[in-house]
Amino acid sequence: MTGPLDGRTALIVGANGGIGHAIAHALGAAGARLVLAARDQDGLSSLRAELEAAGVTSRAIPTDVIDDEQVRTLVEQAAAEGMDIAVNNAGTTHRPAPLGSLAIDDADRVLRVTLRGTLVAMRYELAALPDGGSLVNIVSTAGVAAAPGMAAYVAAKHGVVGLTRTAALDYADRGIRVNAVAPGSIDSGGITAQPDEIKRQIGSYAPLGRLGSPDEVAAAVTWLASPAASYTTGAVLTVDGGKGARGA
Fold first, then answer.
1. Burial letters for 6-29: b for 16+ Cβ neighbours within 10 Å, e otherwise?
2. Fewer CB within 10 Å: C terminus or N terminus of the chain?
3. 3-state SS string over 146-214?
4. Model pTM?
5. Domains of the chain, first to last
6. Residue 177 and residue 168: Cα distance in Å, rounded?
7. Cα separation, 223 vs 14, whole angstroms
């Protein structure tokens, strides 16, 4: 059986963690060869073993997105593997605090990793992608709305949305599609560690009445990366259980 991404190679920056793992498995199941990047070499090795057991071809390259030279080298190696899809999932967050109390070091770290790291990765990826390639950024519903106490995180994610839409315009003449997926409350990361009652409460805020799964985010990424989304660029696809439909 063939998949929609057979014969394609996808670079996933930020492949570790629940959403990163799900994206890797989904793109691999769709037929893509994978180049996996994250800071945690042990985590990458574990993910590669999972993918190999599932019959997915992958290569792991430990990379820190705050190091421009590491990012440049990563993209060069991915391009040598035939990269025609790039997914940027690297990012970090900070503890909630009103803007007037936000530690500048925390703000600098979030902006450096989440916004600048994505900008640098996109700069190299867009120069290396072939005509007709696809780039997908993982943002957050915080990239299309606000969240109290999360000023630096919201600013960084809004910035990535701006990068996505601008690059979509800049590269449309080459047929390179640039889109973003904005997850809402997903059973991943810090939410996964919460007690079941807290998770149910968080999920209840969405009209669908539950948390989303990393696999549901990965399905959106896979669609945007595939030929099925051939007329979609500059879009921000929310995966939030309908919460954004309320307008707040």
1. eebbbbbbbbbbbbbbbbbbbbbb
2. N
3. CCCCEHHHHHHHHHHHHHHHHHHHHCHHHCCEEEEEEECCECCCCCCCCCHHHHHHHHHCCCCCCCECH
4. 0.96
5. 9-238 (3.40.50.720)
6. 6
7. 19
Nearest by Cα to 22 from 2, 50, 45: 50
Q: One-letter amino acid identity for 91?
A: G
Catalytic amino acids?
Answer: 153
Alpha helices in the chain (DSSP H): 17-29, 41-53, 68-80, 104-110, 117-128, 151-170, 196-204, 214-225
Q: How far is CA 103 from CA 151, 152, 154, 167, 213, in A?
A: 11, 10, 15, 31, 31
The one-letter amino acid code at 238 reads: T
Encoded tokens for 125: 């990826």
Residue 116 CB burial class (10 angstroms; 0-12, 13-18, ≥19): middle
